[in-house]
Specification:
150 residues, mainly beta, Hypothetical Protein Pfu-838710-001, 3 helices
Length: 150
């Protein structure tokens, strides 16, 4: 189960840290289907096929490893745009981790931040700092599967 809150960052200047001081990964992903969500992803040099159930804050998620060759074959079958982004991984208080996604290409300068939680109660109780910006957790418009179709 994936339980996460998502926030829209309006500008890098709003952040109280420099993302480049933290580890990052280069991600490329495409969608074979958006209802249900079936995604392929290259995460640095790892490749996955992912199924996600319906939902906004909480969704079932299953990841299966792919070979680079299988990924490239499936990539040609993706509907919509291929999304590329840099993901910075930033530790937060209370043992939480912020995944900060800086989108590239025609989705730039979009910046989204996600925080995963152990349970829905913790996710709903979380009081985000103001710099996280607008909470878009319950807006399907900011799901990557939606962004791939715009």
């Amino acid at each position: 189960m994936e339980i996460e809150r998502k926030f829209l960052i309006s500008s890098m200047e709003d952040l109280p840290f420099d993302p480049e001081e933290f580890p990052c990964r280069e991600i490329e992903q495409g969608y074979l289907c958006t209802s249900p969500v079936v995604r392929i992803r290259r995460d640095n040099e790892k490749y996955f096929l992912t199924y996600k159930s319906k939902g906004l804050m909480s969704r079932e998620e299953y990841n299966l490893p792919l070979t680079p060759e299988a990924y490239e074959h499936l990539r040609t079958k993706a509907d919509g745009r291929i999304i590329t982004k840099t993901r910075y991984v930033i530790p937060l208080e209370q043992g939480l981790t912020l995944e900060l996604d800086l989108f590239h290409g025609d989705l730039a300068p979009l910046i989204l931040a996600e925080i995963e939680f152990a349970d829905e109660e913790s996710a709903l109780a979380y009081q985000p700092p103001k710099w996280l910006g607008e909470d878009v957790t319950f807006s399907a418009a900011y799901h990557n599967s939606t962004l791939s179709r715009l």
